[in-house]
Amino acid sequence: MAIDRFTGEHSVAFIRSEQLFDYARSKSLWYMAFGIACCAIEGLMHASGPRFDFDRMGVFFRASPRQADVMIVAGTVNKKMAETVKLLYDQMPEPKWVVAMGACASTGGPFREYPNVVLGVDQVVPVDVYIPGCPPRPESVQYGFICLQDKITKRTEERLAARRDRS
Amino acid sequence: MSPLLIVVLRVLAAIGLMLANGVVLIYMLRKVLGHLHVRLGPMHMGPKGVLQTTMDVLKLLTKEDVTPTNVDKVLFFIAPALVFVPALMAYAAIPFSETWRITDLDTGLLYSFAALSVIPIGLLMAGWASANKWSLLGGMRAAGQQIAYEVPLLLSVLPVVMVVGSLNMSDIVAAQSGLWFVIPQLPAFVIFAIAGLVELNQTPFDMSEAESELVAGFASEYSAMKFGLLFLSEFSNSFIMSAIGVTVFFGGWMIPFVPAEVMQPVAPVIFMTKVYIGIFFMMWIRGTFPRVRIDQLMQLGWKWLIPASLAWIMITGLVIKVWQLGPGAS
Amino acid sequence: MSDPRDDVISVGALAAEGTHSAGDPPAGIRRVPSGVDGLTTEHLIINMGPQHPSTHGVLRLLIEVDGEEVLAAETSLGYLHRGIEKLAESRKYHQLGTLMDRGDYVSGMHGEQAAALATEKLLEVTVPDKARYIRTLVAELTRLASHLVWYGTFGLDTGAMGQFLYAVRDREVLLDILEEISGQRMMFNYIRPGGVVADLPVGIEKKILDFLTDFDVHLEEHHALLGGNEIFQMRVKGIGTISREMALAFALSGANLRATGVGFDVRRDRPYDAYPDLDFDVPVGSTGDAWDRYMVRMEEMRQSVRMVRQCIEGMPEGDFTAKVPKVIRPAEGEVYASVESSRGETGVHLVSDGSPEPYRYHYRGPSLFACQVLEEILPGHLLADVVMMIGSLDIMLGEADR
Amino acid sequence: MLPDATAVSHILTAAGVSNAVVATETLGVVCRLEAASVLRALEALRDGELDFRVLLDFLGADTGEEIEVTYHLRSLTRDEELFIKATVAYDGELRSVWNIYASALMPERETAELLGLSLVGHPNPKRLLTTDGVEPLLRKSVPIRTVEEVRNR
Questions:
Q1: Max Cα separation, chain C?
Q2: Which chains have at least 3 CB atom pairs separated by less than 8 Å from chain A?
Q3: What are the tens digits of pLDDT across the range D34-66?
Q4: In this predicted structure, which of B205-214, C120-129, C133-142, D106-115 has the lowest mean pLDDT?
């Protein structure tokens, strides 16, 4: 949106709004429902189910990548799927984040030796948060999202610090 | 104050009301659905998560606005506006109380429906322009179902208009000082409720953006605030439909057996409460019902609702004629 | 007015007129619509998946539609192909369960059970009674958990949301119980050749019985919430009908087969573990449509509850595992062992050459065969029914792609 | 569960399939044939009195010299199971049996792809599981990744 232009790197006047927007982004992470394998049951179904309730944190799912902020890669990515993952990542609007959920998405997991499996989704798209486990418990997924929130709010501070160094 | 200024202020008030309503309704939806589903809904932003929607709006505002390569650019940009503006226009005729209203139209009811009937064009446009097959199917379904159900929707309020003898919303409310029309006109209300849900693309008739079938329907390719506008106007529409229902069938700002003078100061509050109760029922349905299929929906509309509403108009006309009720009677 | 779908026009005639340029019809096409009064209409090819909210994972369907009506469909698999069969050739026999868990990931216990049964057949080991009962107990609990996922997502496909979350609520309790037994919520790795990996924890019987007391009520609630809804009945009755001949030709198994009226259940007809001792019914349907599949699965859940109760009552004393060497080196040979998993007959075809690793390990996933039948039953239905049929067949892509 | 081996060989001989070896092994009753006569044998078994209506499973295995394919048949009326085995050379052709047993459609594609055979007589002989250029992974000559490869990813 056009407002981004006024909150760019060099507009000192809007530092506060920049912080506010990053805060808002961190609190409203809509993820794309893209369950590949086993992790989808834990990370997408149970995490948004009654006990863990992702909606509390403002995290809920959108079916279309155009409206999503986060892509949870929940499962093994193989060579056939890698193109789709890349395509979907490209379809998401900026700013966007990727969470590699589980051992398979992080490194290939138990299937790492099979030549058709991609060794971690970070070989296809940049990953922000890795969640270990096979599959990770829903709590781990929520902790992963808290880490992602921290990472997003910290972006402004880093940018401010860089600006201070320059001046 | 100059008349122009007043007009501008009124339009601004309508926009403000619409946006505030949208934000509140989205929060309400998430909370209502949460509690229906043995969850809590948003909790982290502000007390009980009240600021959650604000955060969502702020985020949508600053999101990148993607325009896919193959879209029909002009239509792609116009479509959200074409959906949003009629949703805004329809606020004009709604009487919140005897004095609280944006304008007092003699043909208020007709005007509201006319404004709402522009929306399918916007949805079809959005679906067509997106250059996405899912969107196209969603837009087609939206146009098909909404145009089909406009007929029973209008026919369902016609008996009330026949009894009152006026299309002015205030007159309709005033005519219900003794008895809400929902009691004598129950069949008309049932038809209105079903056709209204279809017009709103609400579950169980949300074929046009059926998430499990069409990904996100006509909104599939929209991102950032364009999607926000589509999303917001959906909630605004449900507010308007609920408001029309309250005005026509549930006595508007009035409560039976309470004198008008007592109610006068709190009339808008009563009206809003009734509207929100109506919306709550829509959300309840949304949280529990499965979706019907498009051919079943069309059969329901053409085979049942239109004949039923025509029959009910005839019965009402006969009753008015035989017992000399209505505006003709002294 | 006659139904336009009844007009059968041969493809050759259309191709001659030039309105339809396709050559031979792909497998599954039965009729080509005539178009509207000679108007040249275009058929859309829609790509559904691998990222789609209701393809149950990563199934990809290419659907040719005329308006909303499906003319032909082709399934494309392989988006989750991760080499379970190949990797098993470099794993020890104890480790097969780890891979099988991730095959049909919603009902992991059944996969482990199939691998363990095959290994035991090669080893000719007798499993202690207690181990047989524990296996049956956890298998039936897993079946409940898996059917709850099916029930929830089937409802989501129709557009209902509420019952999905109620199903997840019940599943949480089930997973707690399974976690207490095996140590993991989903990838149990609990059933090993010769028995199970650990005894049941103290006091688990009471927890299970408490859950079952609640679940008896919840199950009827679930059924009333989805199956009792008239809109849902309108949606599922009469769609996706699979005839008995089609089911046999496509080698369907499990509830998909039983819904067509063929009462084959591995638990009853090829009994293994403690099933010969248990008293249970095998529900069968009559017409083989989506509603029958729904009813058969709901009834299976009731039967599972019965079996779990019987397992707890009849739980014998004794060892939870037989004496099995640390490194299993079975004799040369080839065996086939199958279990009734939540989706059908999960079979394991195991070839041993006497070394500690299997020589060839083949895994029969019932979902692969359910994916095949999709191409056959989709034509003639509306687009909205596609997701319903995927849901009603209960496809798990992990075992179709392997 | 186990069909009568003599009845099976009788049916096969009547159908004109010569040198079929029927034996009872650990797997069950196994019938070894030449690849060329598989189609005729399957048709006879499906329509014969043993009523093997279901092809439960189809798989191939790399024996080190050639590919051995196994057809797993089941008769629901008689509750019997039969395994048919045939061998195909590494660069050989796999004849599709889909018009006898429709359930072979996808398993055949999978086997042909993962064992590097060419599929003949199939309506849709495309790759099923992997993308173009992936080598036949189930062959013994195709190695899996080593520990070093995984570590230096």
A1: 77
A2: B, C, D
A3: 888 888 888 888 887 888 888 888 988 888 888
A4: B205-214
pLDDT at residue B326 tops 70 = no
Provide the number of CB pairs (under 8 Å) joining chain A to chain C. 95
- pLDDT(B39) > 80: yes
pLDDT, tens digit, for every residue of A131-149?
988 888 888 988 999 999 8
Q: How far is CA C33 from CA C12, C13, C73, D153, in A?
A: 13, 12, 15, 53
Rounded Cα distance, C247 and C86, in Å: 29
Name which of A113, A117, A123, A127 to mutate to probe chain D: the one with the most chain D Cβ atoms within 10 A of its Cβ: A113
Mean pLDDT taken over chain C? 83
D150 with A123: Cβ contact below 8 A:
no
Task: Determine the structural domain holding residue C170 and report its residue range.
Answer: 84-401
Determine the pLDDT at residue B325.
Answer: 64
Inter-chain touch A115–D145, beta carbons under 8 Å: yes
| Positions of chain C with pLDDT under 50 | 1-23, 25-26, 29, 33
In a domain, C200, yes or no: yes
- Bridge partners for D85 per DSSP: D32, D70
Q: Is the pLDDT of residue B59 over 60?
A: yes
**Does residue C166 belong to the interface with chain B, where contact is any CB pair within 8 Å?**
yes
Residues of B in contact with C229 (CB under 8 A): 289-290
For residue B288, the SS3 value is helix
In a domain, C72, yes or no: no
CB contact under 8 A, A80 and D153: no
Interface of A with D (CB under 8 A): 79-80, 107-108, 112-116, 119-120, 123
When divided into structural domains, chain C yields a total of 1
A interface with C, Cβ–Cβ below 8 Å: 32-38, 40-42, 45-46, 49-51, 63, 65, 75-76, 78, 80-81, 84, 88, 104, 110-111, 113-117, 134-135, 137
Taking an 8 Å cut-off on Cβ atoms, the answer to whether A27 and B222 are in contact is no
Q: In which order are the strands placed within the sheet that holds A70-74?
A: A60-62, A30-32, A70-74, A97-101, A129-131
Strand partners, C69: C66, C382
C83 CB within 8 Å of a chain D CB: yes
Give the rounded percent of residues in chain D with a pLDDT score beyond 70.
100
CATH code for the structural domain at D5-137: 3.30.460.80
Determine, for residues A64 and B216 on separate chains, whether the beta-carbon distance falls below 8 Å.
Answer: yes
The dihedral through the CA atoms of D117, A37, C349, C332 has a sign that is: positive
How is B166-197 classified by DSSP, letter by letter?
---HHHHHHTTSSS-TTTTTHHHHHHHHHHHH
Averaged pLDDT, A23-44 = 84
Least Cα distance to C159 among C59, C53, C256, C237 occurs for: C53
What pTM was estimated for this model as a whole?
0.87
pLDDT over 50 at B90, yes or no = yes
CB within 8 Å: C368 and D101: no
* Torsion-angle region of B327 (φ positive above 0: left; ψ -120 to 50: alpha; else: beta): alpha
> Would you call B55 and A28 a contact, using CB atoms and an 8 Å cutoff?
yes
Nearest to C53 among B38, B137, B215 (CB): B215
| CATH code for the domain of C277 | 1.10.645.10
Residues linked to residue C334 through DSSP beta bridges, in sequence order: C351
- Helix, strand, or coil (residue B96): coil
d(CA C194, CA C215): 32
What residue spans define the domains of chain B? 71-325
Query: Cβ–Cβ contacts within 10 Å for residue B265, how many?
Result: 9
**Cα separation, D98 vs C375, whole angstroms:** 14
The answer to whether residues C100 and A110 touch, using CB atoms and an 8 Å cutoff, is no
Q: Which chains touch C (3 or more CB pairs under 8 A)?
A: A, B, D
Asked if residue C346 belongs to a domain, the reply is: yes
